[in-house]
């Protein structure tokens, strides 16, 4: 697909290869089954009901989401088992929305403080279904989450607030990096953190039923042990940073932005019509440039404006013609998807369908 884009597209547009998408979903589902893990994919990467359906049919237990509004969007699409993998701070508006959501889906929510646990208990009191929580612990990413040894303190506050304490979760985000050993270390770090958190809960008489971790970069480095649920997200599409890190191959890239060459101002430079409002502005330290061009793998997107992508070619490489439509794989696929209204679904260069990005802009 990455070199076979459908003809007649109005660019820029996000195009998904249906075969690669399905293969990526099946491969991760099989890896989880083989390893003895439950799979709860993170839907913030695709935000699309049709893709969620494919993941669930492949055996996913439910979905993870990043925000309450993402949860609402997937609940409206018929998903009935959701984990908001984020330490929500329930203000008055979110409290009302949480109660409504808890009435219609099996709902889990992340928590990483005593104060938030108490507010969450107040927010969902009286819901038709019990809301369960997982305590977030930090395994080395230094983002949200309490030290694993403090998990019991947060869990006790949640239990006292009337919430069911399901277990603990973490995110091994420090596994993002060039060095494969970083991914290995991050996988071991999450195992240690969740094991310690589990012991902290058991000391309070709370037996953890779920210890949730996992990410796309640490895929393949999981070991049977304390972790029993995985939440990878980017794997459905993959992206330029996963490619640069060695987490996937070119044949595993399922999404690209179709973009038109609008200018060839110099022999070694051309400009595409997919800028930061299509590709996103994420540029990680281990990625060269602002995206990957499969038809020009040695080229570098050196500058990105809102509606321009400036591409430099190596010396002697022929430039594309004006009007040529090229595929650009974004650095970090989650941002472009959140900027798009729809995904063009294709197979071998033929457009099959268009899927709405149902949770687009669902940031609250």
TrEMBL record:
Belongs to the DSD1 family. GO terms for molecular function: alanine racemase activity. The keyword Isomerase applies. Pfam families: Ala_racemase_N, D-ser_dehydrat. Keywords: Isomerase, Lyase. InterPro entries: Ala_racemase_N, D-amino_acid_metab_enzyme, D-ser_dehydrat-like_dom, D-ser_dehydrat-like_sf, PLP-binding_barrel. It comes from Streptomyces mirabilis. The keyword Protein biosynthesis does not apply. Its EC number is 5.1.1.1. SMART domains: D-ser_dehydrat. Residues 254-347 form the D-serine dehydratase-like domain. This is Alanine racemase.
